[in-house]
Amino acid sequence: MSSALLAPPVDLGAAVALSCRECGHRVALGPFYACTECFGPLEVAYEFASSGEDLRELITAGPQSIWRYAPLLPVPAHVIDTPNTNPGCTKLVKADRLAAELGMRTLWVKDDSGNPTHSFKDRVVAVALAAARELGFSVLACPSTGNLANAVAAAAARAGIRSVVLIPSNLERQKILTTAAYGGTLVAVEGNYDDVNRLAGEIAGEQDDWAFVNVNVRPYYAEGSKTLGYEVAEQLGWRLPRQVVIPVASGSQLTKVDKAFGELIKLGLVDESDYRIYGAQATGCNPVATAFKNGSDVIRPVRPDTIAKSLAIGNPADGPYVVDVARRTGGAVEDVTDDEVVDGIKLLARTEGIFAETAGGVTIAVLRKLLATGQLDPDAETVVFNTGDGLKTLDAIADSVGPTATIIPTLDAFEKAGLA
Amino acid sequence: MSSAVTVRVPTILRTYTGGSSTVTADGATVGEVIDNLESAHPGIRARVVDETGALRRFVNIYLDDEDIRFGEGLASQVAAGATVSIIPAVAGG
Fold first, then answer.
1. Is residue A79 part of a domain?
2. 3.10.20.30, 1.20.1420.30, 3.30.1130.10, 3.40.50.1100: CATH of B3-88
3. Which residues on B lie below 8 Å from A215 (Cβ)?
4. Average pLDDT rounded to a whole number, residues A171-198
5. Phi, psi at residue A52, to the nearest 5°?
6. What is the predicted pLDDT for the residue at A306?
7. Which residue in A68, A195, A224, B15 could disulfide with A123, CB within 3.0 to 4.6 Å?
C-alpha cells in the first residue's frame, strides 16, 4: 500500500481509504463507488482514534444528533458547525401493546419518522453532504423513491447549494409535493425507480461537480445508516438487542446496521452478544427474500409491483450482502403482500400511536409472519425499524380507514349513531 | 450474423477506451459484443465477466433499455444498431 493511501488529501475524520467489499482492493478517499478491478461496491475503511470508555464519554457528551457519532463516521470534526439538518436521536419506543398483541415479551420500535424530513434518509444525506463538501462538489443530487428526494432537497436548501432530484413520475403525490416545496430542481422521469437509478448513474458519469448522494458519493452516504445501529445500542443502555427487523430496498441500511453492531463490539462499547438480523420486503418486490429462500446469493432482478414504493427497488445492489448477514446471524428475509402491509400499518397505529409509511407496514407485517412461522423468537428482545412517516403514503390506507360515522351536528344524531 | 452496435462505457472502464464514453463493437449476442470489445480494448472483458465467463454480480448490462438479466443474459441476441450500456450496480432509495 502506498503512503498516499494513508494520508488522504481530504479531512473525513477517521476514514482512511475506500475498500472494495468484494475483492478488498483499496483506493484513496474520493468520489468513487465501484471497484476498478471487479465493479464491487466500495466501502469506507477507518482507523478509529479512540475506543472503549474514552469513546463512550466522547459520544455521550456529544450533540443530540447523529453527530455524537462523528468519530465513527466519514465526516470532518467540524461537521456540527456547518449548516445541515442535524438528524438522528429519534425515539426508541417500548411497544408493550404491540408486543402483547403479537404474543412477544419485549419489543421496541425505532421510530425514525421523527427525523427532519420524516424518514431515515436524513441520516445518510447528512453524511453524504458533509463528504460532498469535503470532496469539493457544488450540487447535491439523487435518484429517489421519495424519502431520499425529500431529504436531499431539504439538506441542499439548508446548506444553500443546488439540488437535482430525479423521481419516477408515478410517485405518491405527497412525496412529490414534499420535495418540490424546497425549491430545487425536481425531474419526474417516465419510468420506474430502476430506470431512474440507471439514468442517474449515466448522468453522474458526465457531471463532474454533481454529488449524487447514492451514486458517486454512496460509500459515505451509506455509512449514515450505521447511526441507526449506534443509537439503538446506546438507547438500550449500551447493549445490542437479540433480534432486529429492518426493511430492505437496496439492502444498504440492513448491512450498515450489522456493520455498526460489529464496530460497537470491536471498539468495546457493548459486550459481545449474538444478534439476529431479519430483512423485510413486499412480495411485489422481493428479489432478496427470494434469493434467501432459494439458498442463492445471486439476486435476480424483478419488476416491482407493490404499494411499498420506498422499497420498490427491483435490482437491489446490496441484496447479496443482506442475504449474507441474515444467514450469518441466523436471521431471515421474508416478504408480505400489500394487504398485509396495510394491516401492518393499521396494527402499529392502533397499538402504539405510530403512523408508519408503507415500509414500516412491511416491517410490522414481516414481524408478524416471522412469529407465525417460528422464524423469530417471541421471548427474545426485538427491535423493529419504522423508517418513515405515514403522511407520505396516505394513498395506501385511503380505501381502508375513514370516519367512524358521519352525522349532522346534533346531540340526538350523535346518540343515535351509537357513539357515546 | 454479427451486428455493429454502440457500447456505452462507464467512467471506471474508460481507461481501456482511451477516455471514450461510447465505442462501437460487433457481435450477434451481448457475450460476443463483450468478446469483440476485448480485442479492441484488451483487459476490459475481465472487468465485466468473472473467471467462469459469468457476468459479475455488480455489473449491470442493458441492451437498449432492457436489463439483460430479464432476457437471456450474455446470450441475449443483439440487433444491428442496438445500444449496449455497461453500468455499475448502485443502490438507492
1. no
2. 3.10.20.30
3. 90, 92
4. 91
5. 55, -140
6. 95
7. A224
Can you give the length of chain A in residues?
420
Q: Residues A31, A37, A42, A45: what is their CA dihedral angle, to the nearest 10 degrees? A: -100
Residues 248-277 of A with CB under 8 A from B: 249-252
- Chain B contact present for A33, CB below 8 A: yes
CB pair distance less than 8 Å for A214 and B48:
no
Q: What whole-number distance in Å separates Cα of residue B36 and Cα of residue B41?
A: 9
- Given CB atoms, is B60 within the 8 Å cutoff of chain A? yes
Q: Are residues A256 and A352 in the same domain?
A: yes
The answer to whether B21 contacts chain A (CB < 8 Å) is yes
Report the length, in residues, of chain B. Answer: 93
Report the largest interatomic distance among the alpha carbons of chain A, rounded to a whole angstrom.
84
Name the H helices within A331-420.
338-352, 358-372, 411-416
Query: What are the sequence ranges of the domains in chain B?
Result: 3-88
Cell of A173: 403525490
* Pairwise CB contact (< 8 Å): A194 & B21: no
Helix A226-235 vs helix A252-266: crossing angle, to nearest 10: 50
Residues of A in contact with B63 (CB under 8 A): none
Q: Locate the chain B residue with the closest alpha carbon to A247.
A: B93
**pLDDT(A7) > 70:** no
pTM score, two decimals? 0.91
CB of A145 within 8 Å of a chain B CB? The answer is: yes
Q: How many domains does chain A have?
A: 3
Q: Specify the residue for cell string 412529490.
A: A176
Q: pLDDT class for A305, splitting at 50, 70, 90?
A: very high
- Count of beta carbons in the 10 Å neighbourhood of residue B87: 21
Q: Exposed, middle or buried: residue B27 (CB in 10 Å: 0-12, 13-18, 19+)?
A: buried
The C-alpha cell that represents A66 in the structure block: 447523529
The domain of A132 spans 121-221
pLDDT at A2 over 50: no
Q: Please indicate whether, in this complex, the C-beta atoms of B93 and A121 are within 8 angstroms of each other.
A: yes
Separation CA B34–CA B29 (nearest Å): 9
